[in-house]
Specification:
Radius of gyration: 30 Å
Number of strands: 24
Oligomer: single chain
Helix content: 40-55%
């Protein structure tokens, strides 16, 4: 297609975008009129027909639903107006030679599709195919043919700047242009998705998936694009309220919260290990007037070299299972037979129900099932006893004596003592974090929890920082399929989820796009990261600068930062205590922002923060302070 033909295509697409924008605006205006008419009709006719309220309610629901769809379409169309499409593939097969254009959403005029959504099956030709014979999987089967052209487009504010023809993957110049842009927020990568990333994004949705990738491989980005793909595949099952993300921190979620909206989708539910624990233990916390220590504060103690009892390993988890099984037996108290009027229910009969018939059920569920059993017996013997409030009260009193109610806090303390851990699990009126998930595991093993059953997919980022026990708790609570992302070389805790007995479908990303060869060459001198392919984007080698004393280090740093001309620079220290110390030293000399547990959003310019608060974020430049044997003697 010649330049003139490209211009004709672009103008046709722009006209269609404008046409669809106007059509959606018309629908919105019509819905506003419909809402006004429905309200006026209701108030005018309310005294004449009792069914008017239901009629108005139905009209309002239809208008609201239609308006929501139009608003969502408008958001996508406004984005497409700035960037109508990003790629094109010419594919020759038995049905002829077709040109497919790809954008963030499908754009069609009657039966003719001008732009295909990047999530459609045919888009695999763009992401995975190369010039020559190729194929893609369609609903009707495998479609084979020949790719005769692959083209990428660069737009700015709706204007076509240039296009590039490529033979195989995303053009290097286009990818470099994307990678060299340092933004405060993560951007979508729909234009530059690589083949290995595309495989993970379109991975089948009915299985768990673990994506292991080196730093800069795009793990988080592809996970969010996978969410967008699932939403496209089944918008009812995978709507935004039914997908959750367990993120490392609130600031990390704010860092990524523009990706899905930029793809025309709503953001998903944000959770973290602290919020999950609170949702499950809030009744116990309220009862005892306690709080939960946040994991960030646990990291602070860990990074401050505090000696911490570790109750989250596989061995401790196995011991916990044995403890729970033993305690489950002890909750049943030996009890005499139950007499209700002239009805006798033998104690042995109820013991059989608890220990045998209902042994696979939760303790709380067993109690409920036994109550139902007794009620059914009473109904069968209605000639001698009736099921009424009085007989129900007798049954409840009996069962409360028969089956003890577990006290999860006391059980946690007992388990800790049994395993020779001597620390007090409560300090400063908070349950210390290293015991929180022990208590959680005990509770959800004894009492059924459905609080997260409405979720149909779960993302877990920085999964390498989950302990074995945390992973088991999350797996029990979220019964849906999961996409997990991690890098063993970036773990913060000594014993984590990666154990040989946890078998997961795993995709390994060995290409790093964000990092440079200079950084990985430096990294390999410290730890061995084999078989990493770094995108050809060279930069300066990392420097090690030594100082004779802290004063010399401080003066050098102030001078360096005063002359910094880049877009984003992170000063990384070991913990929040060190971040506060350096912040107080530097803030009088330079414009500086601190990132801590209370931070809500990442700022441009120079920032300072601890390892765990800045983990997973991206910066143009990084300086790690106080890297000495004294400061990192354990690492």
């Amino acid at each position: 297609m010649k330049d003139k033909e490209e211009i004709i295509k672009l103008n046709r697409v722009k006209e269609l975008i404008d046409k669809n924008i106007n059509a959606n605006k018309t629908i919105l205006k019509s819905n506003i009129t419909e809402i006004d008419d429905a309200m006026n009709f209701f108030y005018r006719e309310s005294n004449q027909d009792s069914g008017n309220e239901n009629m108005m309610d139905n009209r309002l629901k239809l208008a609201k639903s239609s308006s929501n769809l139009s608003l969502q379409s408008l958001e996508k169309l406004k984005k497409m107006k700035l960037k109508p499409y990003f790629g094109r593939v010419d594919f020759n097969n038995e049905w002829g030679n077709n040109s497919y254009y790809f954008g963030i959403a499908t754009l069609s005029d009657e039966d003719n599709i001008e732009v295909h959504d990047w999530r459609t099956p045919v888009a695999n030709l763009y992401y995975n195919g190369e010039i020559g014979m190729s194929s893609y999987n369609a609903p009707l089967g495998v479609i084979q043919g020949e790719i005769t052209l692959k083209r990428q487009y660069k737009f700015e504010e709706g204007n076509l700047l240039f296009y590039i023809d490529t033979t195989y993957n995303i053009n290097d110049d286009m990818l470099i242009s994307y990678l060299n842009t340092n933004d405060v927020l993560m951007r979508n990568i729909v234009t530059t998705i690589q083949k290995e990333q595309n495989t993970a994004i379109r991975y089948k949705d009915n299985e768990d998936l673990l994506v292991l990738g080196v730093a800069g491989s795009g793990k988080t980005s592809l996970a969010l694009h996978r969410v967008a793909y699932l939403m496209y595949k089944d918008s009812i099952k995978y709507n935004s309220s039914r997908i959750a993300l367990i993120s490392p921190s609130e600031i990390f979620y704010k860092y990524i919260d523009d990706v899905l909206p930029s793809l025309g989708e709503k953001n998903i539910v944000d959770l973290n290990l602290n919020s999950v624990a609170y949702k499950l233990l809030k009744n116990e916390l309220r009862e005892y007037g306690l709080k939960i220590e946040k994991k960030e504060d646990y990291y602070e103690r860990l990074m401050s070299n505090e000696k911490i009892e570790y109750l989250a390993s596989k061995e401790i988890s196995n011991a916990l299972d044995e403890f729970i099984e033993r305690k489950t037996l002890s909750f049943y108290n030996k009890h005499k037979d139950l007499y209700i009027g002239d009805l006798l229910i033998k104690g042995e009969e109820l013991a059989f129900l608890y220990f045998d018939k209902f042994k696979t059920k939760y303790v709380s569920t067993r109690k409920s099932l036994i109550r139902d059993y007794i009620h059914s017996k009473i109904k069968q013997e209605k000639k001698i006893i009736r099921l009424n409030n009085k007989s129900k009260e007798v049954v409840d009193d009996y069962l409360n004596e028969l089956i003890s109610e577990p006290n999860y806090l006391e059980l946690t303390k007992e388990f800790v003592r049994e395993n020779n851990y001597h620390g007090n699990i409560i300090k400063n009126n908070k349950i210390e974090y290293q015991y929180v998930y022990t208590m959680l595991y005990i509770k959800i093993s004894l009492k059924e929890c459905k609080i997260f059953d409405n979720f149909n997919h779960l993302l877990i980022d920085e999964v390498q920082d989950l302990s074995y026990l945390e992973f088991r708790v999350i797996n029990k609570l979220f019964k849906c399929n999961k996409t997990m992302l991690g890098d063993i070389n970036q773990r913060l805790i000594p014993n984590n989820v990666f154990n040989k007995d946890i078998i997961l479908n795993t995709l390994i990303l060995k290409n790093s796009y964000r990092s440079t060869s200079n950084i990985f060459n430096f990294l390999n001198k410290i730890i061995n990261v084999p078989d990493v392919k770094v995108f050809d984007r060279s930069n300066k080698d990392p420097e090690i600068i030594r100082f004779n004393n802290h004063k010399e280090e401080r003066e050098y740093l102030i001078d360096l930062l005063k002359n910094y001309k880049g877009n984003s620079l992170a000063l990384i220290v070991k913990n929040d205590k060190e971040a506060n110390r350096w912040y107080n030293i530097l803030r009088g000399h330079i414009d500086l922002n601190i990132i801590n547990n209370k931070s809500k959003r990442l700022q441009k310019g120079i920032i300072i923060g601890s390892i765990y608060n800045l983990k997973g974020l991206e910066f143009g430049d990084v300086i790690v302070l106080d890297v000495s044997e004294d400061n990192y003697y354990k690492e």
